């Protein structure tokens, strides 16, 4: 069994005047996704010599020097210490589950379909389907013209690593616009239950219309939130006045 992953902590203890140097190294090693094979190790070195080691497989401390053996006996007869080591082993096991279960699950991509001018091409336009931030690397990006897959005039980049375990890929379609034609980018990936279709919408009247409606909605929302805020301020200043009159004035008026 070669552990695929491990994480460790390091504690250094040293005294410069006496040239003494001690360090405690703790390691959590595992290769299974559920952490059943997780091994927790704790090693104490003094002046670079391994003195004692706790190994969760053995469930006890082993001493490697004369002093180490004495120290190991003390630790092994301390139920609190052993219990704490077992707790740390369990922590290590849960860490394995978290690493594989939380970090390595498929990540759904975000897709952007746009058009650019194709330079030096017999076709007047080019569409780009950019697929960002997905995991794992395996992905299929294809083009549909009126619902049918097209392979001509299609180019694709390699899956490029972002450097954060996520990938991106770009697919290009050279095309001649035809009236009424529906063009979509289809993405198939482990993170998706079913293939995702992203239709290309030309920046035509409908696209412009959507932007205008969006801006109008934004302005309307702004007007209402400012209005609401003013109303709230007015109301809350009225509310402050009420207890003042009730609490402080009755005695004088009675
Ligand atoms: C921990 O103990 C197990 C069982 O004896 C052994 O196979 C393993 O090599 C030990 N690990 C280390 C780092 O000594």
Describe the structure.
By secondary structure, this protein is α+β, with helices and mostly antiparallel strands. It folds into two domains: 4-103, Class II Histocompatibility Antigen, M Beta Chain, Chain B, domain 1 (Roll); 110-207, Immunoglobulins (Immunoglobulin-like, Sandwich). Helix content is 33%, strand content 37%. It has helices spanning 66-76, 79-103, 205-248, 250-253, and strands spanning 5-15, 20-30, 39-46, 49-55, 60-63, 110-116, 125-134, 139-145, 148-150, 154-156, 160-161, 167-175, 183-189, 196-199. The strands form three sheets. The protein has a five-stranded antiparallel beta sheet. Strands 6, 7, 10, 11 and 12 form a five-stranded antiparallel beta sheet that branches. Strand 6 (110-116) and strand 7 (125-134) form a beta hairpin. The radius of gyration is 33 Å and the shape is elongated. The chain starts with a strand and ends with a helix. Bound molecules: 2-acetamido-2-deoxy-beta-D-glucopyranose.
Structural class: alpha+beta
Element-by-element helix/strand order: EEEEEHHEEEEEEEEEHH
**Strand numbers in spatial order across the main sheet:** 1-2-3-4-5
Terminal residue distance: 89 Å
Overall average pLDDT:
83
Low-confidence stretches: 242-254
**Total discrete domains:** 2
Q: Please report the first level of CATH classification, the CATH class of the largest domain.
A: Alpha Beta
């Amino acid at each position: 069994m070669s552990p695929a992953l491990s994480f460790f902590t390091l504690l250094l203890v040293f005294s410069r005047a006496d040239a003494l140097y001690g360090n405690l190294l703790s390691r959590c090693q595992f290769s299974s996704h559920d952490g059943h094979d997780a091994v927790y190790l704790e090693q104490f070195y003094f002046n670079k010599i391994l003195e004692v080691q706790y190994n969760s497989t053995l469930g006890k401390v082993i001493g490697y020097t004369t002093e180490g053996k004495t120290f190991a006996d003390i630790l092994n007869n301390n139920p609190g210490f052993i219990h704490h080591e077992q707790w740390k082993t369990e922590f290590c096991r849960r860490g394995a589950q978290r690493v594989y279960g939380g970090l390595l699950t498929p990540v759904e991509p975000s897709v952007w379909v746009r058009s650019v001018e194709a330079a030096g091409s017999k076709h007047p336009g080019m569409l780009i389907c950019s697929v960002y931030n997905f995991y794992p690397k395996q992905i299929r990006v294809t083009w549909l013209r009126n619902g049918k897959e097209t392979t001509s005039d299609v180019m694709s980049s390699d899956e490029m690593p972002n450097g954060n375990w996520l990938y991106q890929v770009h697919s290009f379609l050279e095309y001649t616009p035809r009236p009424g034609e529906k063009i979509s980018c289809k993405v198939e990936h482990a993170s998706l239950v079913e293939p995702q279709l992203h239709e290309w919408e030309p920046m035509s009247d409908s696209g412009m219309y959507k932007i205008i409606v969006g801006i109008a909605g934004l302005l309307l929302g702004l007007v209402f939130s400012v209005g609401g805020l003013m109303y709230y301020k007015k109301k809350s200043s009225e509310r402050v006045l009420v207890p003042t009159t009730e609490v402080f004035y009755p005695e004088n008026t009675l």
